[in-house]
Amino acid sequence: MPRGKYTNHKGRNRKFTSPEELEEQRKQEELKQKWRKEHGPSSSEESEDDKSGSGDSDDSDSEDDQPAKAKGVSGLIEVENPNRVVKKNKKLSNLDNIGEGEKPQLSRREREEIERQRAAAAYQKAHAEGKTDQARADLARLAIIRQQREEAAKRREAEKKAKDESTKKK
Questions:
Q1: How confident is the model at residue 60 (pLDDT cuts 50, 70, 90)?
Q2: What pTM, to 2 d.p., does this model score?
């Protein structure tokens, strides 16, 4: 015997039910069902039958005809689940019209993403036209850089001329 509260089932012998035993059990179930049909179900046997969950019972058809009896107070109170979505049947003729007329419903995140893309495109367009503050600052910076480069080019030209003249004089 293993020590402790729990036992390990690994490595133990396995017991398989023989076909003869299965056949015997099936025959006993059929005999019980025949007896119940002949003598009529009593309340204790009926609840016992429901608990056992017999797989292939012939009298299950007769149970389906009768409405299920509600247990406790649930039969008195009718509660509608507010979260339950009732599936509405649509007509085929209306399906074509619905697809064309309505825009698809977007989630909040999808709407925000589309709005962000539109805003970015509008900003890029305004920036390219020079209407934004950043574009004006960039253009001013570029003008200053151009002016500095022109002055540097003029200085280089002046130095070059001075060098050429000094070399010619010598």
A1: very low
A2: 0.32
